[in-house]
Design a protein that fits this description.
- By secondary structure, the protein is an alpha/beta fold.
- Among the domains are: about 1-60, Orthogonal Bundle (Arc Repressor Mutant, subunit A); about 130-265, Rossmann fold (3-Layer(aba) Sandwich), CATH 3.40.50.2300; about 385-570, Rossmann fold, CATH 3.40.50.
- The protein has 21 helices and 29 strands.
- It has a seven-stranded parallel sheet, with helices on both faces.
- Helix 15 links the parallel strand 16 and strand 17.
- Helix 16 (about 385-405) packs across helix 17.
- The protein is elongated and about 85 Å long.
- The protein starts with a helix and ends with a strand.
- About 45% of the residues are buried.
Length: about 575
Amino acid sequence: MADRDRHEKIVNLVGERGFLSVRELSEQLNVSEMTIRRDLSRLEQQGRVKKTYGGAASPRSVGAATESAEAAIEKAEGPLVDTIDVLIATSVNPLYDALLLDRVQKRRIPVIAESVELPEGKTVVAVDNIKASRDLGQWVGHELQRRGQDKARLLDLSFHLRNTQTRSQSFWEGLHEICPDSEMILSLDAQSTYHTAYQLARDALTVYRTINVIFAINDSTALGAIHACRDLQLDPRKIMVVTFGLEGDALIEELLADRYCKAGLAMFPEIVSLACIEAAIMAYNREPLPAKLVTPHVVLTKETLPEFYTREADGWKLNWETARARLSIPVPIDFQIDHEKVKLPRQIGVTVPFSEHDWYKNLSAQIYEYATRYKIDCQILEPDQSLRDEVDLRRRQIAHLAAELVNPRDVVLLEGGEIAHYLAEELKQKQDITVITNSLTVLNTLNHTPGIVLISTGGAVRYSSQVLVGPTAENALRDLRADKLFLTVSGIALEFGLSHTNISEVTIKQAMIRAAREVILLADHSSFGQESMVQVAPVNAVHKVITDDALPASVRLDLSKAGIQIILAKE
């Protein structure tokens, strides 16, 4: 595809969706993420898209208010979360949640949770999962009775999060109340993706031909199930798909087509996003908030959907007049703020865990729109990139502390890995030291550095990690002694000890341990509690551990009991 054609495609896609991540654009256009980032820079210069953290947004969604935010981000050091005043966050996974909440807690940044409660959240903006799911289950039960069927034979396409598990369970309870003879044929984790849902639904429908109801946890899952029914040429009169969400235009069109999709639980991203913004402003001003802001839901069918949504040129839009009259909206919707009494945050951050889902596309676009009305800057925090940035920062801090342990005339052993690379950068400031290494990256970093004697172990190059391994390297270490070894591994567990993924690297690590008077382990908290394929050494081979303060206190105590000194990298 020519550059011009690709640029037009990007502009059209971003215009249609409101926001798209770099990864999603890369996958859709079949080019590298680097190419997409270059394209976005050019398109932003032309004023055709607005670059955001991790992707791009439509200029009409973002508005001119983001310009000052992006200028601030370019100057900012560290993760983007450091530049925001309030965070609207959705639970992603325990690792990301812990890192994110640790950072915002240290900076006293208020958190508004969306969908799932978070430990540091001032409030959670969410639908009443139990009631909403029960309502949908009861609707299905009544619909089966209307069709003359006495029971449901259910395929539940769920997900592993707390709120989605609650939705599946409550749906089943509501259905069972109306049709007590119903059977749960299968309950499967569809991983919240279209492709997994399609394959699981197709397999289940092939094996269990009596399935007559499919409950899908979101629109992506529902579309997978619908297309599986279509490709198997199942009779739409004998099976129905219902979805929790009714999140975007694709499912609305399926609902109106009146084939497999018969009902959808509308959660109204237009209202949820508004509640998130209003709650964020209140949290920023340290105003009291309820533990939960409950947003409305409605079970919509082909007949009732036009009461709430109207088709316009750029998609389906909520009828606000109907919403005001018939729904319980937990926050004001007039966008009138007394600026003498209420301060507005300069910038709000929003995590988007599933950027391919219609729910989060619509939610992020609506949050942009509402924030812009208040002239608040708004930035998308893409979890994958945010997590990489946070871990990277912590590894740099670990490397900095490690360098402080190196004294003049020290002989140090330094191996491969990201932390080792950062440590090599720190060591460039040292004088009168000797560095022995099997890392090509470290060799290139320290080459021609005055005051450092640089020794290579030699050996065969392992290209994936850019380290030297094999008998040559190991034999060289037999004749060398170092004061300190800065060791990295991929797994650390009290029982299994230090472990790593590749056996050729394990043997050179073991040779380094034998050659060192002191072993200093460099590891961020994510490596602890992990057991990789091959054991390197028992834990008591380590004298000191330099890690970050996200490592639980209980693990730190266990290491201390083993006689290991813990050095924590703190901000």
